[in-house]
């Protein structure tokens, strides 16, 4: 199945992209997606347990994904 | 209640007008502005970016929570994105309430929760030409080369 991965700020710089269509196995979790993405870029700048949102809501690492889910890796936020 | 992510200068008068009511005896206005020095380095500007759709949703949730906390619907917040110069306003929070205690409390709640939860990032630009993404919570930063454009 395919999920969309969104990368922002320092994480987008680390991977060199801001959006990735990723093929993962059925039943894949947020953790699986993080591991895929870390392998694509500068893993030192992509921590093993970043904050993640699935479909615009914060989610845990063991959250199971569904086809078409939007998985955003969220660097430490710095608004204000 | 009002919340928005915008790309144009924040209009403070407009924000205040949104929380004005005959029953309010207190109005609190908080403005976040771009300052010229951070961690001892001279800053010449800040670029704000966001996961916009989620940021809008999260900001709206925070305003609803603050309204419940303060028992007032006269709460407004705007956050600006894009390139901002020193002294420009990046965020404005306004709360109107019959009494000042709740107004201060709700305004503080909105800005503190915003800083913790809303997916917005800022990259400071320094006088020496370098830029860094700011990690507001820890003060830590990730170094980005001066020529690194996205």
Give an overview in words:
The complex is a heterodimer of chains A (80) and B (150). Chain A has 80 residues and is an alpha+beta fold. Chain A has one domain: Beta-grasp domain (Ubiquitin-like (UB roll)), CATH 3.10.20.30. Chain A is built from 2 helices and 5 strands. In chain A, a hairpin with a 2-residue loop joins strand 3 and strand 4. The radius of gyration of chain A is 12 Å and the shape is globular. In chain A, 38% of the residues are buried. The mean pLDDT of chain A is 94. Chain B has 150 residues and is an alpha+beta fold. Chain B has a domain at 2-35 and 52-121: Molybdopterin biosynthesis MoaE subunit (Aldehyde Oxidoreductase, domain 3, Alpha-Beta Complex). Helix content of chain B is 29%, strand content 39%. In chain B, the strands form 2 sheets. In chain B, strands 3, 4, 6, 8, 9 and 10 form a 6-stranded antiparallel β-sheet that branches. In chain B, strands 1-5-7-2 form a 4-stranded mixed β-sheet, sandwiched between helices. Chains A and B meet through helix 1 of A and strand 4, helix 2, helix 3 and strand 8 of B.
Record the SSE blueprint.
The complex is a heterodimer of chains A (80) and B (150).
Chain A: E1 2-7, H1 9-15, E2 19-23, H2 30-40, E3 51-54, E4 57-59, E5 70-74
Parallel strand pairs in A: 1-5
Antiparallel strand pairs in A: 1-2, 3-4, 3-5
Chain B: E1 2-6, H1 12-18, E2 26-33, E3 37-38, E4 41-50, H2 52-70, E5 75-80, E6 82-85, E7 89-97, H3 100-117, E8 120-126, E9 131-134, E10 141-144
Parallel strand pairs in B: 1-5
Antiparallel strand pairs in B: 2-7, 3-4, 4-6, 4-8, 5-7, 8-9, 9-10
Helix pairs in contact in B: 2-3
């Amino acid at each position: 199945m395919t999920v969309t991965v969104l990368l922002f700020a320092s994480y987008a710089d680390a991977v060199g992209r801001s959006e990735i269509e990723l093929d993962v196995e059925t039943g894949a979790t947020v953790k699986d997606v993080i591991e895929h993405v870390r392998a694509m870029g500068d893993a030192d700048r992509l921590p093993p347990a970043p904050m993640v949102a699935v479909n615009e809501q914060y989610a845990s690492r063991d959250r199971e994904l569904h086809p078409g889910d939007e998985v955003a890796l969220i660097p430490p936020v710095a608004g204000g | 209640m009002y919340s928005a992510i915008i790309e144009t200068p924040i209009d403070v008068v407009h924000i205040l007008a949104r929380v004005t009511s005959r029953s309010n005896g207190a109005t609190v206005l908080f403005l976040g502005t771009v300052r010229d020095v951070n961690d001892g380095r001279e800053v010449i500007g800040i670029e704000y970016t966001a996961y916009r759709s989620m940021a809008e949703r999260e900001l709206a949730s925070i305003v609803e929570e603050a309204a419940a906390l303060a028992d007032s619907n006269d709460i407004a917040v705007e956050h600006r994105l894009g390139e901002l110069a020193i002294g420009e306003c990046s965020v404005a929070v306004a709360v109107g309430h019959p009494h000042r205690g709740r107004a201060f409390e709700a305004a503080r709640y909105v800005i503190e929760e915003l800083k913790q939860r809303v997916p917005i990032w800022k990259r400071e630009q320094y006088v020496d030409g370098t830029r860094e993404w700011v990690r507001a919570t820890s003060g830590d930063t990730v170094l980005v080369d001066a020529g690194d454009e996205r």
